[in-house]
Design brief:
Distance between the termini: 23 Å
Largest sheet: 4 strands, parallel
CATH superfamily: Creatininase
CATH topology: Rossmann fold
Oligomer: single chain
Low-confidence stretches: none
Helix content: 40-55%
Number of helices: 8
Bound molecules: nickel (II) ion
Length: about 240
Amino acid sequence: MELARTNWPDVARYLERSSLLVIPVGSVEQHGPNGLIGTDHLVAEALALRVGESEGVMVAPTLAYGMSHHHLAFPGSTSLSPRTLILVVSEILSNFYRNGFRRFFFVNGHGGNDSSLKAAFSEFLLNHPEGRTTLANWWLLPEVMEKEKEFFGGVNGYHATCGEISVTWHLFPDRQSPIPPGQAPDPHHEWPLGAERFRSLYPDGRMGSDPSLATGEKGQVLYDIAFSVIRDRVREFGIAP
Ligand code: NI
């Protein structure tokens, strides 16, 4: 059930049986020389909508923009600052709460959002004691990481990973663009990084990955695993006391 495609009486009826809202969140940032700029929000949205359909839960419009300061030296990347993201998320939650939603499950596609999302949850929960918040970072789910290790060994990487590129190739097969083999530099032990510093350490935008190993078939397997784990978590979160 997509919130954007319902009307308010539909929402009022939904709220009689559930106060759960799933919210996809991602980023608009470079994903290496052959990864899609929208990777993080496109994958989060696809997972959230699939869960919404399978479980009959309401899915809010995707928050496509995230905290991507470190990617700003690449064309096509943009960002909210951490404090803006905290404000945007806490205000969206407070106002959905005001008209009846209580439980908020974020499906997140981007690591740079994690700390701001959790800070926003803390701000929101301070004044909304009946509120419940949680998030799933799909690429960090143990079940996903285990399969990525099996598929890609030590070259899955940390940004523009083989796994995330495979999932976008499954979702958008006409956007597949193979690249020659070769692992990008491994992550430097310095984080976070400024935009220019990031580009000097990771010149083509990838961190430690060799996306020549990406395939849509592997992407489908990873996507199905992420979906089933998140579906179970959403189910549990919706009924937890
Ligand atoms: Ni990503």
